[in-house]
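[step 3/7] inverse_fold.run input=structure_tokens len=219
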């Protein structure tokens, strides 16, 4: 059973608190406003499922290239989600994706890598599919490692034969106040050096005790 289906079942049973964040708000008046028809959530470590606070889209074109533009410029220059100096975290596609998303699907999950710390603070996630994209703003978060999405036909422009276009990729943007870091493993040389220092310390202690015993025997 997929993660988003599990979350939906739990929500129906009333076991998980859902924080409604006024998903009908469309920021900046940009795009056709159909982003409000999509379902995009973030999952807190506490179990709460949080809806997006506001959204922008659908906008024509790509959301983010290698440096995060054009959406990064919209976030910083147009302040579509407030006066915050946003930074580009990364995309879910390419040779070295920054996080995971259910590519080639119309609904699914997005998730951070296991070695990436949880998101704590404001963030924006955008979804590119078909010939356009929409961006979704989240705030007041404590510990998020992923969530769900469901793209609607209105959001994707209908696609061919009124079908929903599948996800091409997702992109994440963070506020400088938002914390999430990648745990970098120590190089093997440093690990061996650490073991060597510990071993020398143990041998040094044994030599010192041996010298003391020899001196006592000579006395």
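[step 3/7] decode complete -> sequence:
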């Amino acid at each position: 059973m997929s993660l988003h289906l599990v979350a939906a079942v739990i929500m129906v049973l009333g076991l998980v608190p859902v924080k409604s964040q006024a998903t009908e708000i469309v920021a900046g008046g940009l795009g056709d406003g159909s982003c409000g028809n999509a379902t995009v959530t973030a999952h807190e470590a506490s179990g709460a499922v949080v809806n997006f606070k506001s959204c922008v889209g659908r906008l024509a074109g790509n959301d983010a290239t290698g440096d995060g533009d054009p959406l990064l410029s919209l976030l910083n220059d147009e302040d579509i989600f407030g006066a915050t100096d946003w930074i580009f975290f990364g995309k879910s596609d390419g040779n070295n994706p920054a996080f995971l998303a259910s590519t080639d699907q119309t609904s699914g999950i997005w998730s951070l890598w296991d070695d990436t710390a949880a998101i704590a603070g404001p963030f924006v996630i955008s979804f590119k599919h078909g010939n356009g994209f929409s961006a979704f703003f989240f705030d007041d978060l404590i510990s998020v490692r992923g969530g769900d999405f469901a793209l609607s036909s209105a959001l994707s422009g209908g696609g061919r034969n009124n079908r929903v276009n599948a996800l091409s990729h997702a992109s994440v943007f963070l506020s400088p106040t938002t914390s999430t870091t990648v745990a970098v493993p120590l190089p093997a040389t440093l690990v061996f050096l650490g073991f060597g220092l510990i071993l020398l310390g143990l041998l040094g202690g044994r030599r010192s005790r041996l010298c003391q015993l020899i001196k006592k025997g000579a006395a």
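[step 4/7] annotate
Residues 3-174 form one domain.
Residues 121 and 140 are 6 Å apart (CA to CA).
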